[in-house]
């Protein structure tokens, strides 16, 4: 099965100038935990709900701050023609729960662990990724 068969194709995005508050409100509205950040249709980063909390609120950054200040720039991406198994392994290797799917740097979809678990009936792929992504973190004290 190919990623194109299970990915979410209509992906909401934000621009680098979008405020943290606007990004958080959009996440709430569409019930997602991350939003790709695009500039002139080119994927330049991704912001997660965790980024907003850990890099924003915890550091007392104003909610009016642009997402470009705290977004994750080093991203792992996939392609529409890769297999679901390859996508799951890529997600496991990089311990990520969401994989932006790009074509010529443009976001054409996104795949989550949930998509793999629900839409890929082999289920083993989700188990592979979930085992690796869900390794417990050791708190720094």
From TrEMBL:
- UniProtKB keywords: CBS domain
Which domain of life does the UniProt lineage start with? Bacteria
S-adenosyl-L-methionine in keyword set: no
Keyword Kinase carried by entry: no
Any Pfam family from its record, for instance, is CBS
> Which SUPFAM superfamilies does the record associate with it?
CBS-domain pair
The CBS domain, residue ranges: 7-63, 71-128
The name of this protein is: CBS domain-containing protein
Organism this protein belongs to: Planococcus halotolerans
